[in-house]
Amino acid sequence: MPRPTTRVLAVLELLQTHGRMSGSELARRLEVDRRTVRRYISMLEELGIPITAEHGRGGAYMLVAGFKLPPMMFTDDEALALAVGLLAARGLGLAGAAPAVASAQAKLERVMPTGLQRRVRAVDETVTLDLSRSTVPSDNAALVALTNAAQTRTRVSLRYRGRREETERELDPYGLAYRAGCWYVVGMCRLRRGLRSFRLDRVQSVRPLASRFTRPPRFDALAHVTLSLATLPRAFSPEVLLKTDLDTARRELFPTAGVLQCTEEGVVLSAQADDLRWFARELARLPFGFEIRSPAELRDALALVASQLLQQARP
Predict the structure, then answer these.
(1) Is residue 66 over pLDDT 60?
(2) pLDDT of 72 higher than 70
(3) d(CA 285, CA 252)
(4) Which residues make Cβ contacts (< 8 Å) with residue 88, sequence separation at least 6?
(5) Looking at residues 97-115, what average pLDDT do you find?
(6) Which among 125, 122, 124, 191 is positioned nearest to 155, based on CA atoms?
(7) Distance CA 208, CA 180 (A)
(8) Range of weakest confidence among 45-54, 74-83, 155-164
(9) What letter does residue 132 receive in the DSSP assignment?
(10) 211 CB contacts (<8 Å, ≥6 apart)?
(11) I need a labelling partner for 222 at 20 to 30 A (CA). Which of 110, 124, 151, 255 fits?
(12) Are 83 and 125 contacting, i.e. CB atoms less than 8 angstroms apart?
């Protein structure tokens, strides 16, 4: 349940948004009784916020005409960060993101000076971010519950819908990450007795348990998710020797291309792929030499790609 201070601020926000609200309506919105609403109104008045109360059957509460909160001051960089952050939130796989972002932006604009309002709106109206691959869960309950559990080091009971079955397991959530359009939670799975990652759009329910856990120091949830995606078993397991250094290989390959390992000959790429032609095209665009070690079918796929490119190059 929200704390009383949160509800008091919610009363102020409702009065600012709607201008005039009855005690019964405020009580319904806040899920409290009317006596509690009167107490919240008194607390706002003690903070110096002038409120007018109309008595009788049609009575209501309202802020004194002309009252506004002092403008919230931000630097140009802070305003830009807020604007881009709100814009990005729309595409980060959050349920109900669009109305939530619009509401948050409206609240910020009410307490921003006019100049900053224009800057925030300019970003919203002119900047486009490519986050179209997001997989949106039905709601944000799992994200909220798991971030809280990870922060408080609380073990949870997780009901998860996999590709073949639905299971219930205990999980120590170490952290969450957003990768390739999906949210993931990473942690120690007590059912499988190992480190696992789970897509949040497949989480059916999260229930906190009484047990606590210790998270490994400097744990990187995103690095684990990236490695998991790169090593997910597929139809083929290509191995390619890249004739370059590790930094260059990392810069030229996308993060989930596979696992890179330095050797005396160069960098060995161990990957997983369902489509060898697609993988061959990825190799063909590399600016350095390479040697296909396996499978032999990948050499045939690369030869086909090379033949197609040669045909395209002819007049």
Answers:
(1) yes
(2) no
(3) 9
(4) 129, 131
(5) 77
(6) 191
(7) 28
(8) 74-83
(9) T
(10) 154, 155, 170
(11) 124
(12) no
